[in-house]
Amino acid sequence: MKNVIRWLPAVIVPVLVVGGALVAPAVANAASAPPSRTAQQVLALVAASKDAAYSGTIQQSSDLGLPQLPSVGPGSSTAGSDAASQLLDLLTADHSVRLFVDGAAKERVQLLDSLAERDVVRNGDEVWSYDSKTKKATHLTITAHAPGTHAPETRRPETQSLSPAQLADEFISAIEPSTKVSVTSTASVAGRAVYQLELTPKTGTTLISHVTLSVDAATGLPLKVVVDARGQKSDAFAVGFSSIDFSTPAAALFDFAPPKGTAVSSPAVPAEPAPSNRATTHAKPTVAGTGWSSIVELPAGAAGAPAPSASAAQGKLLDELTTPVGGGRALQTSLLSVLMTSDGRVFAGAVPIASLEAAAQ
Predict the structure, then answer these.
(1) Are 335 and 350 spatial neighbours (Cβ–Cβ below 8 Å)?
(2) Which letter, b or e, does each residue of 25-36 get, where b requires 16 or more Cβ atoms within 10 Å of its Cβ?
(3) pTM for this structure?
(4) How far apart are CA 39 and CA 182, in angstroms?
(5) Which of 87, 144, 149, 328 has the fewest CB atoms within 10 Å around its CB?
(6) Has domain 16-265 been given CATH number 3.90.180.10?
(7) What is the pLDDT of residues 106-150, one digit of tens each?
(8) Secondary-structure class of domain 275-360 per CATH
(9) pLDDT tens readout for residues 11-36
(10) Which is nearest to 168 in space by CA: 62, 333, 50?
């Protein structure tokens, strides 16, 4: 069951961000606004910002309708004690993050808690993650892998899901005909003039009202991402810069040495299954429907599907988050629904629970 909670953040963005053919944008009317651009031109501006250098402070807030559980709240005895609690904390609590970027291969993320700090540092092929509370660090070297092996897991660490640029890339890369994309207005983020791209579903069967990407008018860097839920006045999820500096960060910021007393692990590169065994190693997820109404199904036994057993604390956490429904348990947030059936399948989508139950029949 731990894997269910651990899997949720990886599903939220891909499931929610399915979008559409570009349409003629509205023209910004602010007198001091930057030159008018079409949606296509703003997207091209974003694409040209991939190798930017900058640093700043990011603020993230969530109002997903999830409870603030005592077991994972700030200052609790178990907060940050396992991956499930840390990921749930990212979904339910507000966070402040320091971000340093120098092109595509140098990045440092500092997630600041009240009494601790979590760091992820990439410097070329070297990647470190460090948690000051647990005094544990992980070190990976990203290299070309030899035949018979595959590269280590190199998806962005969970703290980096707070980067507006990464989230904007996820939304933009999933644009399809089910979404209207327009330039709704210009505004200001962290004292910078921005173009605001609004992604609006063309269907009423999704929980998502719209997504707004605020793009720096001068550099093309996404500075803020806001996801709004239907029928909810407050933003369901928002992450954006409160301050930003476009000068190149000091090179020393990307050199990491674990503090004395830190337990360091270096995960081994696992062997790749033989071609004949790949099809049977894990059942693969499937997707039903299209666009914003898509539903992802993980068959029983799929990678990321519920584990057959979990600790008592993890089981309690799952019970607090979910409610019993016919044939399983369900998690409902303002942006995402998850259904875990009694036979081990998992269904998720930016749709009501009833849609997942129908898909499970």
Answers:
(1) yes
(2) beebeeeebeee
(3) 0.78
(4) 6
(5) 144
(6) no
(7) 999 998 776 778 899 999 999 999 999 899 999 998 765 444 444
(8) alpha beta
(9) 444 444 443 333 333 333 333 678 89
(10) 50
Three-state DSSP state, 290: coil
Structure tokens at 271: 């062997």
Q: Where are the domains of the chain?
A: 16-265, 275-360
Cα–Cα distances (Å) from 352 to 17, 88, 205, 264, 287, in that order, read: 16, 21, 8, 43, 16
Q: Which helix (H) or strand (E) holds 286?
A: strand 286-288
Beta carbons of 230 and 209 less than 8 angstroms apart: yes
Strand order in the sheet with 136-141: 179-189, 192-201, 208-216, 222-229, 237-245, 53-62, 95-102, 106-112, 117-123, 126-131, 136-141, 263-265
Amino acid at 97: V
H or E stretch including 46?
helix 39-47
